[in-house]
Design a protein that fits this description.
It is a single chain. This protein is of the alpha/beta class and 192 residues long. It has one domain: 3-Layer(aba) Sandwich (Rossmann fold). Strands 1, 2, 3, 4, 5, 6, 7, 8 and 9 form a 9-stranded mixed sheet that branches. Helix 1 runs parallel beside helix 3 and helix 5 packs across helix 7. The chain is globular and about 45 Å long.
Length: 192
């Protein structure tokens, strides 16, 4: 069974989608979960952090990696076949593009890129069609980065926002393992 690093970042409104995707990929991969400090420590209007951690552990039956030190060991020797950052918030996307390594998830990506591991980003961002867009396009041109297809989630209320289509994760991972970008990447918009 292939090994997948599943990295969770702070797009808090997407945690239900994340749990659905995590549950799905656990059927096909041996999954190790990595979580940013914001997700690990913050209570939001969507989830209490303790409740979210319990749900993740119930799905994976494993502990969650939360420190830079825990993620760094995935670099010296190839321990993962792919990394899925889901959700990948705009801040994490921007940090990855700029090479900023300041948490468990950014270290995991950096360590995995060292071994040519495909990195799949399931972006959820309210500013992907404005400030963060330049970083999305920049990562598109960098080796070993792949993207879950995206659509505008509410083009009237949030015209710069796009989110990953959770139904396309499995196909995107399969393509990324062959170092291909799953197409089509832009899926339009959600009917409102």
């Amino acid at each position: 069974m292939l090994k997948l690093g599943f990295a969770i970042t702070g797009s808090f409104c997407s945690m239900d989608d994340m749990l659905d995707v995590l549950n799905e990929v656990c059927h096909d991969y041996d999954v190790e979960v990595f979580m940013t400090p914001h997700v690990q420590q913050m209570d939001t209007r969507f989830y209490c952090h303790d409740e979210l951690e319990k749900k993740v552990k119930k799905i994976t039956h494993k502990d969650i990696h939360t420190t830079i030190q825990e993620a760094e060991v995935y670099g010296p020797k190839k321990k993962l076949d792919a990394v899925l950052v889901y959700p990948c918030d705009g801040t994490t996307l921007n940090k990855l593009d700029l090479g900023i390594n300041d948490n468990c998830v950014t270290m995991l990506v950096k360590s995995s890129l060292r071994n040519q591991v495909p990195i799949v980003l399931g972006v959820y961002s309210n500013d992907i069609l404005s400030n963060s867009g330049v970083h999305l396009l920049s990562l598109f041109n960098k080796k070993n980065y792949y993207f879950v297809p995206m659509f505008q989630d509410h083009y009237l209320a949030k015209p710069q926002s796009m989110i990953a289509c959770k139904k396309k994760v499995k196909e995107t991972l399969k393509a990324a393992l062959s170092h291909q970008q799953y197409q089509p990447f832009l899926l339009g918009y959600r009917e409102i």
